[in-house]
Amino acid sequence: MEKSLSRRTLLGMAAGVPLSAALAACGSSGPTKGGGAGGKASYWYLSGQPQEGVRTGALEAFNKANPKSKINGTTFQNDAYKTKIKTAIGAGQAPTLIWGWGGGTLRSYVKAGQVEDLSSWFDEHQEVRKRLFPSSFGPATIDGKVYAMPCETVQPIVLYYNKKVFDDVGVKPPQSWGDIMDLVPKFKAKDVAPFALGGQSRWTNMMWLEFLFDRIGGPEVFAAIFDGHKNAWSDPAAIDALTKVQELVKAGGFIKGFSSITADSNADQALLYTGKAAMMLHGSWSYGIQKHDGGDFVQDGNLGFMNFPPVDGGKGDPGNTVGNPGQYLSISSKASAEEKKIAKEYFIKGVLQEAEVKAWIKNGSVPLLLGTEKQLAASDDAEFLKFTYDIASKAKTFGQSWDQALSPTAAETLLDNIVKLFQLSISPKKFASNLNAVIGK
């Protein structure tokens, strides 16, 4: 989940949004009303601009067009929302529409019988499903059944690189894991860190494992973990991935002192755009940070970006990605029949309609809606948005961030052990053993 300042405010924010706007999102104490009072159904969602404005605008447009099916919206600041929604769901007093991130949290709602099974509804409304990126349904699906409506935007993890640094050193972007390892000594010889990394924030390290697990063993490796298979972390592909990341650490692949650098401060971003590091693995939201904080770095065309390269001999499709396939709306199983009907109307007539799509793109985001290529092409950030769109729309698998996909207990154990793995204080086998102990918890 969104744990730190940069994670909390930037993970959900659009690429290209000023940092000042992101910081303002932390100041909202909520709850506040949005979308019109007096609705027959209810909807809680996150405050903080610019996302709040887009969400509220979509809800107000629906209410205006459907006066007999109004939905009452209430906004909450991020951390307050997470506490409030869990309490409300536990008490059987959830809003009709439950905004969330899917994955492990959604699984806990499903196990408690608190959210509606939407599988048959989607079967009857294929036109709704076919509008959206197929990959966005992964975190909405629990044990083969769909429990949430994908909405809003996509945020894949991207391998960024400083084109000027590459030109100065006389090398090209890596096309394989072998290339990555070969580039390490070449950058070090020029006193440039191969990779920036805010390792103190933990989830930044996690992105490396997410890609290596996929590229080496395919999406099935983490799927077995998510599904609770015994000793799934000890899969040979998992051990290989854990070993490779430690080999990169031992080779000096990351900036010296990475374990004390925080992503909250955006110090990892600064290392890239100032040329102190050649590359960085980070989310699509990083584009906006570098554009805002990096002076003319982005505008001058010095920022390169690509999907994570394949691993020689690996089973994973190099078109796969990881990150945040979308945000999600579930329907409370405790809602009345009328409230459920209104919520499903909102899925058809309210989610990602024309005005909302334009608003997300204006903010520099890629809506998880198919067919927006022309609108993205007209944006000032067209090259990056097209890149993001292509990755998200063409990926056979869009793996959800592990700290969101897993239960809170398993996620915390994962993050703690990732720190130890990158500090070389535990072996790959010990890492796997520690994580196997919390599978399914």
UniProtKB/TrEMBL annotation:
SUPFAM superfamilies in the cross-refs: Periplasmic binding protein-like II
Keywords of the record: Signal
Coiled-coil portions: none
Signal peptide stretch: 1-24
Keyword Signal recorded: yes
One Pfam family from the record: SBP_bac_1
UniProt protein name: Extracellular solute-binding protein
